[in-house]
Structures are given as C-alpha cells and as structure tokens.
Amino acid sequence: MTSSVTTLNNYYQGKNAIHLVSWVEYSTGPPHQIKWTVQCKVSGEVKGTGVADSKSAAKEEAARLAIVALGI
C-alpha cells in the first residue's frame, strides 16, 4: 500500500510543482510522552494537520487529510 505522503509527493512531482508542498513539524509534552503535530501546506495554506505519538505517523495523517481536502 502506498503511503499518503508518497501519493501527495508523486501527484505534485507529476505537475512539476513539488515546491508548493511544505511541512511544519513540532512536538509538545514531556520527553516520555511527546505528541507530534505536522501540518501539510500547499501554496502556504494548511491542507491537513496530523497529531500522533510519532512524527512519521503525524505526517502520514496530515498528508491523508490533505489528499482528501484537495480531492486527489
């Protein structure tokens, strides 16, 4: 199964517009219970936000939500 991050990247690479996609990542909480928040931005506009225990899971969720929001 292809990840949502890969799907999103492939979509914009195919349009020669990968430069439009950016990610904002930050963590909160104590070191033993960190929560990651990742925002997927397209042309500077937030299209998806994911929150999870790992950065990769949060990024995957943000990409999934962006794909839905963009109708990809």
UniProtKB/TrEMBL annotation:
Keywords: RNA-binding. Gene3D superfamilies: 3.30.160.20. The keyword RNA-binding applies. InterPro entries: dsRBD_dom. GO terms for molecular function: RNA binding. It holds the Pfam family dsrm. Residues 3-72 form the DRBM domain. This is DRBM domain-containing protein.
